[in-house]
Specification:
By secondary structure, this protein is α/β, with parallel strands linked by helices. The protein folds into two domains: 231 residues, Vaccinia Virus protein VP39 (Rossmann fold); 136 residues, no CATH class. It is built from 16 helices and twelve strands. Helix 3 packs across helix 7. It is globular and about 60 Å long. 46% of the residues are buried.
Length: 373
């Protein structure tokens, strides 16, 4: 899957185990699905998953990894991806915008992206099949890009991987049904009935539209006007989200927590976010009892590199290399909260022991097992 700030790749097994500990969890809503890593993990565990995200590239990822049934689409997708791999390069909008005016990919790979994307558009494919091949192209471009994982900027010098040839691969789609929605979070929360809602909202000023504007333009293929050194789509200027505003994030969270129709909640939030641990507990307490587990992990690679100016010169120091992801468990029954917290902590301990037995025995994870309403 694509490189993604805030990705829950290392947390997926813990999240699946936590969801499994709820008394009923056959139907799960992932309200901010992003790359669909969590949603795919939940589908792989045998659940029916509804993955929602309002951005087009994220909905396409969900349509590929959650909605598409491998039993129906895998053979056809494999044949089509093989055909698309043989399309001759033809530079166009993508090459000009993102390889010449900007430097996300090398022009020879950009020319292949242009040609393949035009061919996908020409074929007028069924939605699930189109999503699978678009994800194949997006992930192929991601493997030869020259960024630190976000598209607010690109590297001053080409990353070594940028010299590789773009290669289409068949995405690892799963058998079975699922559903992808493209709604605002509050609308999806109010519309979807499920057993469990997994909620992982944006947490600071950085918009996912701005962070991944190249993928948004690649999927929409609307060839928008762009601006700035990063060549962002002009839509990024007007795009506003409550979750990217320190002033409005509380009202945004309150709206989705109030609207959500699921009995059980599992909420993920970073300790670098606009809402701290105690504030989140207070917001969630209106829905039931709240338990918290904190998971320590490395910050995203761009934050580890440090702060640089437009000339590539380092102008700031890295303040810290690790942060915490809080997993908030919410349920009407305190016994259920305890059971899910126990499952999460056991999963984290076992993973730590598997990585380093000596370290794993020493690690502890803070928890707040019960907060009365």
């Amino acid at each position: 899957m694509i490189k993604y700030i805030g990705s829950k790749r290392v947390l997926v097994p813990h999240i699946v185990r936590g969801v499994s500990a709820f008394p009923k969890s056959e139907r799960v809503l992932d309200l901010f699905s992003g790359t669909s890593r969590v949603a795919r993990g939940l589908k792989e565990s045998g659940r029916y998953v509804i993955a929602n995200d309002h951005l087009s590239y994220a909905t396409t990822l969900a349509r590929c990894y959650v909605q598409a049934d491998a039993n129906r689409w895998l053979d056809e997708a494999t044949r089509l991806i093989d055909e698309l791999s043989k399309v001759p390069p033809a530079p166009g909008y993508f090459t000009k915008a993102f390889c010449e005016d900007a430097r996300y990919l090398q022009p020879r790979n950009g020319a292949r992206v242009d040609a393949i994307r035009e061919e996908i558009a020409r074929r007028d494919l069924p939605r699930e099949l189109e999503a699978i091949v678009l994800v194949s192209l997006m992930e192929a471009a991601d493997r030869v890009d020259s960024t630190t994982g976000v598209q607010m900027a690109y590297l001053k010098k080409w990353a070594p991987r940028a010299f590789n040839d773009l290669e289409l691969r068949v995405p690892a789609i799963l058998p079975g049904p699922g559903e992808a929605l493209q709604l605002e979070a509050a609308d999806a929360a109010a519309r979807v009935d499920a057993d469990v809602a997994y909620i992982d909202p944006p947490y600071n000023q950085h918009s996912y539209m701005g962070n991944y504007h190249v993928w948004e333009s690649l999927v929409r293929w609307d060839k928008p006007e762009t601006y700035g050194i990063a060549n962002k789509r002009v839509q990024c200027k007007a795009y506003k989200s409550d979750f990217n505003s320190k002033r409005r994030i509380h009202q945004g969270l309150r709206a989705i927590f109030s609207a959500v129709r699921c009995k059980h909640l599992l909420v993920s939030f970073n300790n670098e976010g606009y809402v701290d641990r105690e504030e989140m507990i207070e917001l969630l307490s209106a829905k039931g009892h709240v338990g918290v587990v904190a998971v320590d992990f490395k910050r995203y690679v761009g934050a580890q590199i440090g702060i640089h100016n437009l000339n590539g010169e380092k102008v700031g120091q890295v303040s810290h290399l690790r942060n915490k992801e809080y997993l908030f468990v919410v349920d009407e029954r305190p016994q259920t909260v305890d059971r899910v917290v126990d499952a999460l902590e056991a999963s984290i301990r076992e993973a730590a022991l598997a990585r380093s037995p000596a370290k794993g025995k020493r690690e502890t994870h803070e928890s707040d097992r019960r907060v009365e309403r």
